[in-house]
Amino acid sequence: MEKHIYQTYVQVLKEELVPAMGCTEPIALAYCASKCFDTLQDEVQSVDIFVSGNIVKNVKSVIVPNTGGLKGIEASVAAGIVAGDSTKVLEVISIVTNLQKEEMRHFLDSISMKVQAIESDCALDICVHLHGIYHNAKVRIAGYHTNIVYIEKDGEVLYESGVVASSDSSLTDRSLLNVKDIYEFATTVAIEDVQDVLQRQIDCNYAIAKEGIENNWGANIGSILLKTYGDDVKIKAKAYAAAGSDARMSGCEMPVIINSGSGNQGMTASLPVIIYALEEKATQEQLYRALIISNLCTIHQKTGIGRLSAYCGAVSAGVGAGCGIAYLKGGDYKTIAHTLVNALAINSGIVCDGAKPSCAAKIAESVDAGILGYYMYKNGCQFKGGDGIVCKGVENTIRNIGRLSRDGMKETDKEIIKMMCD
């Protein structure tokens, strides 16, 4: 593999597989608010919050961790101001005292907070404007969850990135991703170059999945699957991914390792592969290489789709998990490519209507499609070019999915947001 491509793939994994505590959209709000409060250096008198529609959608129904069960945009911002540590980025409210939880509620009761939905070219767009006694401050995040593009204090611009907010252009170039090179990278990479990020993903995501299975979180999709259908590995793979999501959507205060800006996607891409590796007694190196396949295949699909859209990101991650499982089972590049296309043909109709408990059920279905996509090809069956949106060639099919979600579903996204707001 060319050195430039190799280094790019390593860097992409390091950029994407990072820890976050709580659903990443509320946490991005908290991070933005915490950074703004750091800039203000004054007592807050009022708050103006400007957000894109997809932020409204993904913050509305999910519990913000370490807040005592609070939900919503205002709660996320209040948490960042009262208890945030901006140096922790997506773990900005990971350490919160009981006193601070009380202070959050007092802040919400006593401080004027106005939220305005804005039209933006960027699906992920957040601006927090704090008004103090003596000072004002403004911070904007756009493009992806930690991408601060603007900082202002008392009318003076302290930082402006100059990066187009609607793109991920400040990140490592994802256009080099393709399934053939992903397979080659996974089979040849020096494990020490990626071991730390992958082991962290295994440890964090498996821990929250166990919490979701063993205790009462959300809709309990994981435990219902096991109780109803048994503990066959194919059921366990779905159940553990769903259980992690149920815990996280319901405010569990355990970190997860995200993928493409989403903890649900990070868990969906990794947990089914981890479960298969445990069941089949795979070596740790085999698990690492399979996780490279699943994570990079997920990121590759999401590159064309975007961070937030009307297309459910769990589908991309479930497809990625199917590819990782195919690799664990001895599949070559051709097997992985056909697994990916089959899985996309099965499940590319799930819409994203925000972060909430039903994400766990969508995750279970997406993992099922990934696994079925593999077993179809193993049994000599496949969907072919011309079958609906499937094209000849895995890269062409991935491009079609990007086009479907990015262009075709723009109006769908607007209608979903209107329904949720109504």
From TrEMBL:
One Gene Ontology term of the molecular function aspect: L-cysteine desulfhydrase activity
Pfam families named among the record's database cross-references: SDH_alpha
One biological process term in Gene Ontology: L-cysteine catabolic process to pyruvate
Signal sequence region: none
Residue ranges that the Swiss-Prot or TrEMBL entry lists as coiled coil: none
Residues in Serine dehydratase-like alpha subunit domain copies: 90-417
Family: Belongs to the UPF0597 family.
Protein name, as recorded: UPF0597 protein HMPREF9488_00836
Organism of derivation: Coprobacillus cateniformis
